[in-house]
Amino acid sequence: MEFESDGDVMSGGLAKRIVPCLDVKDGRTVKGVNFVDLRDAGDPVELAWQYSQQGADELVFLDITATHERRKTMVELVKSVARNVNIPFTIGGGINEIVDAELLLNSGADKISINSAAVRNPKLIDELAKAFGVQFVVIAVDTRKVGDQNLVHLNGGRIATEHETFNWIKEAESRGAGEILLTSMDHDGTKAGFDCEFLKQINDQISIPLIASGGAGNQQHFVDVFKDAGVDAALAASVFHYGEILIPDLKQTLKQNNIEVRI
């Protein structure tokens, strides 16, 4: 797929990115709170087109349906999105080996995102980075506070692991991750704001772009996460899907707060 890119935007430089996320289940976009209570939010290809028109910098699609038909459904979704949008998009969910990633990239996806598969088989990160280049590999990390530790969770946040979040992110970076998509499950869907303190701790100690996810409820939350945590991109779902925040308005607000964005 062809798209115009601003060097700063794509390399995690000055311009901050706004990234709508579409969780896809059975071919529909859904959204929940703290990863549960899912409700319908529309047709993913139609939403993708709307976001590309509004000025979103990138899109993320996460397939959350575990079915035998997943691969075929994902490929058709990727092809449809690639035909309808002119901005980069990442696809995740059900990618367990090189062949899965290859199929999606060849169908038009710009990057692939892996989460559980990477934790279960960390060498997969090395293999993907070697096969396609680090710029294609996004490692998604779902984190939740357990006691006094932040622990990585799997399977849509249902299974806690023994991996301390920061240590896992550092390992993923060392293995060839090109970006980290960090979702704070305690904040996800609450609309109470991003976990800026934790995001800053992570961002200060990695050299690859960090995408903040979980907690966006208003425009000020985006201002806060860019200013206080210094992240490269901020991702949200329901506030965009239900029209609570319009991307052109958000970008004007960010610009007024001296945050570099692509208008």
**Number of helical stretches of at least 4 residues:** 11
Query: Oligomeric form of this entry?
Result: single chain
Biggest beta-sheet profile? 8 strands, parallel, barrel
Per CATH, what is the topology?
Answer: TIM Barrel
Summarize the structure.
With 263 residues, the protein is an alpha/beta fold. Helices cover 38% and strands 27% of the residues.
Structural account:
This protein has one domain (14-256): Alpha-Beta Barrel (TIM Barrel). The protein has 11 helices and 12 strands. The protein has helices spanning 7-10, 44-54, 70-84, 98-107, 116-120, 123-132, 165-175, 196-203, 219-229, 238-241, 247-256; strands at residues 17-25, 28-33, 36-42, 59-63, 89-92, 111-114, 137-146, 149-154, 159-164, 179-184, 210-213, 233-236. An 8-stranded parallel barrel has the order 1-4-5-6-7-10-11-12, surrounded by 7 helices. The longest helix is centred in the first third of the chain and has 15 residues, at 70-84.
Index terms:
38% helix, alpha/beta, 12 strands, TIM Barrel, disordered N terminus, single chain
